[in-house]
Inverse folding.
């Protein structure tokens, strides 16, 4: 059971982020919620690759032990971190421009495209 | 070495080089920038055609990035494939041809269309990145890699949708798209991680060969279908699509159409090649069919009331995606039923796949024609237009061809694919055909409205100075017109050479898996 | 952003360079540690962030030429592409410099992987510095006159 604890944390973080996206009105807070979701997914991937008692998956630095954690989820996580960094930077720049154009960060007032 | 073996890598390498070299080349001036944009897009198109030819002749092409040899998918002693594997079967090759034609046309169009604006080095770079992401999604054989290419395409398209950063609407559309798409991709990544955790593999073929249908797979499937249906603009998650398509520069809208088809490709690849016969019952096919019906109907009803051309065409995209989901969903429904497959399922799939080709061509053409109208008149609202046919004869002619094709008027290619869908889904349930026909009628009505208000009628005094658009834009539209007319004049050639191998490859799950996992195992 | 106090600026003078050293260290050992191009490049780019926070953006924009960062980005990207392309007689991205383990010594040669880390590190350090500078200029745009409008818009 305790081995599954990371996955519960992942679920809580993910649901928290998703809820925040739906109920928050401030665009900056929505951007933060998307960051939380990305962190939840990254945590999920890292937790997935862990093997009990495993060591770092580097051939020359591993030492005596032969059990290593899976390197693939770690590579996936790094890639996902890079992607979420790019998206977050882009999202914040967009929010800056939105504030410039609309003078507000409230999602309910940013409604020029409708219907 | 034989370049033929390296075509899948070349297909990704050329846009990649274009994206990386664009900021440097753009320092050399306007001509060099246009040469880079159009030239590399054309080379990509050539490579795509060669790849399609070699796949038709030699079967599924497999390419291992960084391997000791290009087709060494299973190095000795490995039970599962390692490294990043590109896998191109006839369906992928078909999609690649569609996508690269759209990319080439959009590039030609953009040379003249974008020349007034600043920041074109970044524009060219992002354009190539978008092409790269789209082509990568179509040929990759790896689940995580698919996610990477989705994200490359998404981030490039966020930037391109918001390219006119002094337009509040463009920023808003891009923000909406970013929010929706980012949550979607994270959900997709969870699904990929779940499948990896269960089967220790990321290769689609490898997972497909091991797959047992259980609870985890059901959750992953629902996550994947939800995300990809959102990305291709199907009904419940379609609200970002008309905004993004309408606010992007027109050459980019044309390419975005092809990108949404790449998401549709991913959806079909997962349903047919990853899950395939393990799909467990008819719930998922019916879900896809009902999503298709809802997108068709609600998309077209929303489109009829629009009065801004590109937004109207954007809503038609929602409804046209419904046709493909309908056709391919019916194919999925009878995947395990050999009799039904031979009777009507295969026809429905042929119709759906042919519709992908037609849709990419005429929808791209419509977006380019709408962009040409904006360029010439500077107006977006249909109510302010009128009598443009005298001033812009070529644009008018090409718009008419595209509008007739999308409404399914008899000689045109849209009619052929729609007829294939009508006659085959009738066998499943007549109501499906009724909705499809109704959609087609409403499509015709809305395009008659656009044509009548924009091009016919008395000439408005503000338009006396309007000229036909420059030649680059006309050539861009001409490429797509040629494709539409080609499919119109030679429907049987297109069906038997382009569409049928693709449909066969999509049904053949064992072949897709065997190409990577090795038949000799 | 306004400059911070003299204590912070002196601290930045003394220690900010070590971020570059540390970043380069992470970057060149990318082929055998969990670090690599992106991580090293991101650490190097914190140098720009330090300068921005300590000295304020107005001064930083005076010091830094954005063309340099652009150049870093371009060189990194094209070097990465070139390294991948050189593997071509075998496959795209083929590691043609790698040597068998027996010929290696303490640290086995990683071939193109190490060089690619350096290329990616160059690219990322340039790109992230550009992102920081561009976002700062975006903030400044609120204080100054209207943003530059595009001409010939269909709006």
């Amino acid at each position: 059971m305790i081995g599954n604890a990371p996955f519960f944390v992942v679920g809580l973080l993910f649901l928290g982020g998703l809820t925040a996206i739906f109920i928050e009105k401030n665009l900056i807070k929505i951007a933060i919620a998307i960051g939380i979701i990305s962190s939840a997914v990254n945590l999920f991937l890292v937790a997935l690759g862990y093997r009990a008692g495993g060591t770092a998956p580097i051939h020359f630095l591993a030492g005596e032990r032969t059990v290593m954690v899976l390197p693939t989820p770690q590579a996936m996580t790094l890639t996902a971190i890079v992607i979420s960094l790019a998206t977050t930077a882009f999202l914040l720049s967009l929010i800056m421009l939105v504030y410039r154009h609309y003078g507000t960060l409230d999602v309910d007032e940013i409604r020029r495209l409708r219907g | 070495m034989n370049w033929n073996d390296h075509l899948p890598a070349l297909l990704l390498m050329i846009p990649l080089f274009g994206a990386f070299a664009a900021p440097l080349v753009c320092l050399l001036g306007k001509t060099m920038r246009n040469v880079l944009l159009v030239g590399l897009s054309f080379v990509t198109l050539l490579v795509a055609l060669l790849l399609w030819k070699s796949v038709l002749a030699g079967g599924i092409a497999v390419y291992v990035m960084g391997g000791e040899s290009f087709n060494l998918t299973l190095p000795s002693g490995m039970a599962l494939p390692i490294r990043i594997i590109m896998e191109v079967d006839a369906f992928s090759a078909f999609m690649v041809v569609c996508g690269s034609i759209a990319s080439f046309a959009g590039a030609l169009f953009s040379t003249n269309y974008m020349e007034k604006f600043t920041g074109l080095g970044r524009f060219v770079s992002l354009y190539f990145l978008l092409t790269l992401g789209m082509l990568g999604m179509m040929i990759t054989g790896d689940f995580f890699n698919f996610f990477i290419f989705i994200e490359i395409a998404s981030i490039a398209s966020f930037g391109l949708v918001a390219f006119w950063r002094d337009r509040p609407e463009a920023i808003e559309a891009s923000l909406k798209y970013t929010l929706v798409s980012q949550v979607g991709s994270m959900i997709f990544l969870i699904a990929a991680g779940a499948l990896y955790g269960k089967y220790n593999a990321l290769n689609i073929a490898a997972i497909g060969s091991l797959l047992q249908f259980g609870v985890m797979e059901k959750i992953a499937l629902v996550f994947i279908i939800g995300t990809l249906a959102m990305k291709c603009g199907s009904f419940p998650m379609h609200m970002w699509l008309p905004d993004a398509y309408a606010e992007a520069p027109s050459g980019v809208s044309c390419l975005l159409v092809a990108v949404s088809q790449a998401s549709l490709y991913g959806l079909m690849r997962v349903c047919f090649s990853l899950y395939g016969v393990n799909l467990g019952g008819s719930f998922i096919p019916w879900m896809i069919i009902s999503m298709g019906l809802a997108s068709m109907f609600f998309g077209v009803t929303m489109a009829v009331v629009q009065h801004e051309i590109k937004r109207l065409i954007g809503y038609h995209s929602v409804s046209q995606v419904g046709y493909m989901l309908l056709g391919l969903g019916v194919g999925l429904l009878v995947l395990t039923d050999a009799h039904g497959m031979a009777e009507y399922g295969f026809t429905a799939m042929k119709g759906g796949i042919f519709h992908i080709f037609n849709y990419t061509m005429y929808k791209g053409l419509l977006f380019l024609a709408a962009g040409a109208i904006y360029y010439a008149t500077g107006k977006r609202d249909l109510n302010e237009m009128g009598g443009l046919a005298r001033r812009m004869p070529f644009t008018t002619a090409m718009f008419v061809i595209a509008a007739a094709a999308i409404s399914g008027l008899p000689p045109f290619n849209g009619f052929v694919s729609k007829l294939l869908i009508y006659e085959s889904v009738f066998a499943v349930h007549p109501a499906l055909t009724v909705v499809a026909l109704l959609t087609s009628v409403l499509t015709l009505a809305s395009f008659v409205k656009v044509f009548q208000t924009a091009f016919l009628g008395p000439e408005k005094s503000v338009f006396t100075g309007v000229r036909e658009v420059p030649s680059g834009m006309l050539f861009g539209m001409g490429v797509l017109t040629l494709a539409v007319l080609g499919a119109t004049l030679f429907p049987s050639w297109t069906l038997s050479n382009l569409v049928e191998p693709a449909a066969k490859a999509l049904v053949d799950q064992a072949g897709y898996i065997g190409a990577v996992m090795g038949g000799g195992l | 952003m306004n400059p911070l106090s003299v204590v912070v600026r002196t601290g930045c003078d003394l220690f900010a360079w070590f971020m570059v050293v540390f970043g380069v260290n992470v970057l060149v050992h990318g082929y055998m540690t969990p670090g690599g191009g992106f991580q090293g490049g991101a650490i190097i780019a914190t140098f720009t962030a330090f300068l921005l926070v300590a000295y304020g953006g107005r001064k930083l924009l005076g010091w830094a030429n954005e063309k340099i960062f652009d150049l870093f980005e371009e060189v990194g990207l094209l070097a990465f592409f070139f390294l991948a392309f050189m593997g071509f007689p075998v496959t795209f991205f083929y590691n043609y410099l790698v040597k068998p383990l027996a010929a290696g010594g303490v640290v086995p040669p990683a071939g193109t992987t190490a060089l690619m880390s350096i290329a990616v590190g160059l690219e990322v350090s340039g790109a992230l510095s550009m992102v920081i500078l561009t976002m700062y200029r975006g903030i400044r745009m609120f204080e100054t006159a209207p943003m530059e409008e595009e001409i010939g818009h269909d709006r």
